[in-house]
Amino acid sequence: MYYYHRSTAHQTMDEEAIRKAVKVTVRLFGPLADEFGVRELELPMLLGATIADLAAHLELAQALDQGVKVAQDGTFCPPETELIDGAEIAFLPPVSGG
């Protein structure tokens, strides 16, 4: 189960940090969207932040180890990929079916 705390979604950033920030749109699918209560978030992250940093910020770092895949602008990426300003980051849980 993945948990989201709204208090962590809004980083407090000073003016210098804002100048060194990238803004990303996070898209959540399946049970992640249900657990977060939203399908999309816009978040500022520090310049140089990676997908792993974003996952940790959203308390999803463990989810990456449990099979959640991440795509940046439609391309699957490893967690160490640096975030691009204006990028769309999709967290995609494993799909099961029968």
What is the topological layout?
Elements: H1 6-9, H2 15-19, E1 21-28, H3 30-36, E2 40-46, H4 51-57, H5 61-65, E3 69-72, E4 75-76, E5 88-92
Parallel strand pairs: 1-5
Antiparallel strand pairs: 1-2, 3-4, 3-5
What structural class results from the helix and strand content? alpha+beta
**Helical residue percent?**
25-40%
Low-confidence stretches: 1-11
Tell me about the largest β-sheet.
Answer: 5 strands, mixed
Spatial strand order of the main sheet: 2-1-5-3-4
Kindly report the average pLDDT value.
85
Number of helices: 5
Radius of gyration: 13 Å
Global geometry: globular
* Termini separation: 22 Å
Beta-strand percent range: 25-35%
Q: What would you call the quaternary organization?
A: single chain
Question: Helices and strands, in N-to-C order?
Answer: HHEHEHHEEE
Number of strands: 5
